[in-house]
Amino acid sequence: MDIREHLKDGFEVELYEASLRNLENSKNPIALNSFSFSLRELLRNFLSRTAPDSEVVRCCWFIPNEESYNGITRADRIKYGIQGGLEDEFVKEDLGVDLTPVISNMTKKFRKLNEYTHINEKTFNLNQEIVNSESEEILKALQSALDSYALRKTNITDVLWNNIDDSVVHSCISETIQSIDELSSHHSVEEVETHEVCVTQIDSEFIQFDAEGYLQCELQWGSNSDVRRGDGVVVTQSFPFTCILRAPVGDPYLVDTDPSSVRVDNSFWSQ
After folding, report:
1. CA 242, 211, 206 angle in degrees (round to 5)?
2. How far from 86 is each of 51, 63, 70, CA to CA, in Å?
3. Which of 38, 125, 134, 268 could join 19 via S-S bond, C-beta 3.0 to 4.6 A?
4. From the CA atom positions of the chain, what is the Rg in Å?
C-alpha cells in the first residue's frame, strides 16, 4: 500500500510529496535535512489527527509519562493509532500482533529525523549515497508502521467474523425491514449472507464496522389460504444490504448490530 493511501487528502498528501521533492536536487547540501524536517512535521500532524489527546488518555492501557508535557508520548500515539482502546492482551493473544517492534522502529526513526533536522557539520552536505540510503530507510520504516494501521483492521475482522455474522443474521431476521415489507403482503428472511466487513473506526470505547451482503427473502402476496388455492403468489428474491455494527473495546466479541442502520436496496424491484 502506498504511503499516500494512509494520509488525508490535501495537506498531508501535499506535505508528503513536498518532502520527497527535497530529495530530488542532488546539489542541495541540505536535501536530507529539509526532507527530514518536513517529514517529521507530517508525522507529527498525522499522529495528532489519528490519536487525539482526549482519546488516548481514556484508553485502559494508558499510563501518563511524567517527562511529557501532557503525559502523552509519541509511542502512545502510535499505539493508539494501531489498536485504539483495545486491551494489550487481546491485541497480542487474539490478534497475534506484537506492537513492540513497530513502535520501537518508529520512535527510532523519529529520533533519526530529529538528528538531521538539527544541522551541523556532521549532517550538512552529505554525499548522495548517504542521502539515498538514509531517506530510503526512513520511508521503509514509515511504510511498515502505516501498513500496521491497516493490518490490524483485517486481523480484527478475521478474528471476530463469526460474532459479526451472527449479529447481522440475528438483527436481519428479528427486525422488520421496512423496504422489503412494503413490497408484498408478507415477507420472511430465509438466509443472510455477510460478504464484506471492514473496521471503520477504533476509539477508546468502541470498534465500529461496516458490513454488506445479501438477504434471501420470500415475498408473499395474498394469505396462506390464497396461496394454497392458487390465488396468491410466493417469490424468492435476493436483496443487497448494508449495516453498521460496533463492539466495546473491553469485550470485542460482544458485537452488536444497530438495527436502525440496516439498509436494504430494493430499487431494482421497481424498475
Report:
1. 120
2. 14, 14, 22
3. 38
4. 26
How many angstroms separate the CA atoms of 204 and 83, rounded? Answer: 9
C-alpha cell at position 122: 556532521
Band (226; pLDDT cuts 50, 70, 90): low
Q: 152 with 166, same domain? A: no
Assess whether 209 and 261 both reside in one domain. yes
Whether the CB-CB separation of 150 and 6 falls below 8 Å is answered with yes
With CA atoms as reference, report the closest residue to 113 among 25, 22, 28, 10.
Answer: 22
Q: What is the mean pLDDT of residues 253-271?
A: 84
Question: The domain containing residue 32 runs over which residues?
Answer: 3-157
Q: Please state at what angle helix 100-117 crosses helix 31-50, rounded to 10 degrees.
A: 140
Q: Under a CB-based contact definition with an 8 Å cutoff, are residues 252 and 86 in contact?
A: yes
